[in-house]
Amino acid sequence: MTAPRTPGIAHGGDYHPEQWPEHVWDEDHRLFTLAGIDTLTVGVFAWSLTQPAEDTYDFTLLDRVLDRAAAEGRRACLGTGTAALPPWLARRHPEVNRTDFEGRRHRYGQRHNFCPSSPAYRDASAALASRLAERYADHPALLAWHINNEYGGACYCDLCADAFRGWLTERYQSLDALNDAWWTTFWSHRYTDWDQIEVPSALTEHWRGPDHTAFQGITLDYHRFTTDALLGCFLGEKEAIRAHDPDTPVTTNLMGLYRPVDYHRWAPHLDFASWDNYPPLDAPPTRAALGHDLVRGLKDGAPFWLMEQTPSTTACRDVNPLRRPGELRLATWQAIAHGADAALWFQLRASRGACEKYHGAVIGHAGRADTRVFREVAALGAELASLGGLTLGARTPARTALLFDWDSWWALETSDGPSRLVRYPDVVHAYYRAAREAGADVDVVPVTADLTRYEVVLAPVLHLFPDGLAERLEEVARRGGTVLATFLTARCDPYDRAFPADVPGPLAPLMGIRVDEWDARPADVAHPVDLGEVRADARLVFEIVLPRGAEPVGTYGADFYAGTPAVTRHRHGAGEGWYVATALDQPGVDHVVRRVLARHRLLGPYAAHPGIETAARVTPDGTRLLFVLNHHTAPARPPAHAAVTDLLTGRRHAAGEPLALDPLGVAVLRPQ
How far, in Å, CA of 327 to CA of 665, rounded? Predict the structure, then answer.
């Protein structure tokens, strides 16, 4: 099963007509036509309307919404509506409400408020999905199924405790295996009966919050269990849909770098990947790009759908800045450059009440077509229509891979050493950013990915190291590639037990080093690192490296380990293993990564132009497109890398001729 078939890049977004009287819908569709909106995501939070009581279903409203969409020539991603419980379900079955980390059973309220282990929730959500599929499988407006919404969160109730024990029994088969994996001889924790196992919470193994645990093994497994429990809910609905509709693609909207759920475990079960892009405040452009590439990597490089982004502001933060003129266009083209075949907004018409009434929308409360945001969305819709289906199905020709691992994220940030100040996504982003700003296309892939097509593999803070990975990385180097690893990589096995070997464990032969000691300091302590042409600062963790065949590339400049290696390179076969033993600042990371990329001639044509982002896609007919994005608020004139035509303007450029990029401008270049 693949992504929905559309004639061009799908353009639209979340639409909640149930929040407005029906006479407003006429104006909505008139404005949708003006803005080039062809795709509506509907029904995402409609459970209490489509099933107002346990034995009552009412599809009157959805009938009208979908019939109207079809009459207007629009298609719909139909939500199952199961992300927020209806009040009657919580009242009739109190066990569907979650119990929080502190052990408190919640009452009805908010959203994402369901216990994933609750049979009552699973039965009711699957029953609703079944009824929807039975009714709408053949509806002409149906484009895709949108199950639930932004799955996440955890529950710690007795139902989850029982389900966790069952999950552990299946995983370990015996208590001896579990006790060994969790190292329960520590602190007299050896279990002699499955019923003795409690969920790890503030009432059991944790103190000072979810990241402080006495036993990393049980906490790590509870993260894995929660991922699987939520996935079980998704699969229950998908199975119910498939009983009536075997063909329409099914997805759920993910959230990129979202710690609670391991999306790699979900990837095989999604017909196509989709996600909601709300980057952190003041994040550089590469943070959103990392999310795009991570989601694209879930389906082995297949295009994804951008299911949500704001056209103006969000409403879920203490401060919600407005997107400046041109930013919504640039963000959309960035998504397409990184593999999106759809660009959808949250939301199409603003809500009048509740916590999202100030969230940005294509159409505001007054329903005007002359606002700046609406005009920009409409102009973008016309631009997308002019491109047609050229980019659909196009893939990213990356020769650089970055290994991303939820298990390492969970383990690193619940570890009691060496430093709780190390944040997994920040280190990963630093290396991703360095590669992307150097012009390399990057695939963000799981540790299980096939690495044979990559020349460079980046493995930052890969704290847990699965069996067989070291051998696969050695093969990358043997055939001439480069593997780069960092501090706190290959420290523990998949159960979070330290390797009974020299650091960095199974990676030591490839890196050609040994690490016996490591220092950690507060964030305001910086040690200089001499990288030859560049002087960098290092913080947080300082591993003391003993070369065992590796050569120093950079050295510490302070403390008793001054003069010892901070960065090393080791020849292995026809390739190299690089090791960065400390948290370098961004200029330091940039310098190291560019040296690695230069060895493989992977520096992009605009690597010397800060603020100019490039990304390539290759269409199904073999055409290579280069997207050039100007993140400056001033014009830019980088030279054309070859004889090209800008598909957005129709202008032809000879090789070396300056491209005229407006502030926050975009060019889509095709070879002449």
Answer: 9
160 annotated to a ligand binding site: yes
Taking each helix axis as running N to C, give the angle between helix 586-599 and helix 424-437, from 0 to 180 degrees, rounded to the nearest 10: 50
* Residue 77 backbone dihedrals phi, psi, to 5 degrees: -90, 110
Q: Which CATH number characterizes residue 119's domain?
A: 3.20.20.80
pLDDT at position 280: 86
| 77 annotated binding-site participant | no
Q: Where are the alpha helices (DSSP H) in 368-524?
A: 372-387, 406-413, 424-437, 469-478, 508-511
| 58, two tokens | 């009412």
Mean pLDDT over 371-396 rounds to: 97
| 50 burial type by CB count under 10 A (0-12 exposed, 13-18 middle, 19+ buried) | buried
Single residue among 334, 353, 387 that ends a domain in this structure: 387
**Quick one: DSSP state of residue 214?**
S
Residue 282: predicted pLDDT: 86
In a domain, 288, yes or no: yes
In a 3-state reduction of DSSP, which class is residue 169? Answer: helix
CA–CA separation, 220 vs 612, rounded Å? 40
Phi, psi values for residue 649, rounded to 5°: -115, -20
- Report the pLDDT value the prediction gives residue 3, as an integer from 0 to 100: 87
Write down which residue in 567, 599, 631 finishes a domain. Answer: 599
Mean pLDDT value of segment 268-285 = 95
Task: Flag whether 157 is marked binding.
Answer: yes
Q: Is 149 annotated among the ligand-binding residues?
A: yes
Tokens standing for residue 18: 């149930």
Confidence tier at 434 by pLDDT (50, 70, 90): very high
Region 338-356: what's the mean pLDDT?
96
pTM greater than 0.85: yes
- Residue ranges of alpha helices (H) inside 388-526 are 406-413, 424-437, 469-478, 508-511
CB 396 within 8 A of CB 616: yes
Percent of the chain with pLDDT over 70: 100
Query: Which residues belong to the active site?
Result: 150, 308
| Domain limits for position 329 | 10-87+115-151+243-387
The residue written with tokens 């199975």 in the block is 239
Alpha helix ranges (H) inside 514-614: 586-599
Q: Is 171 annotated as a binding residue?
A: no
Tokens of 633: 């608020």
Q: How far apart are CA 343 and CA 335, in angstroms?
A: 8
**Diameter over CA atoms, the chain:** 75
Claim to verify: residue 381 and residue 256 sit in the same structural domain = yes
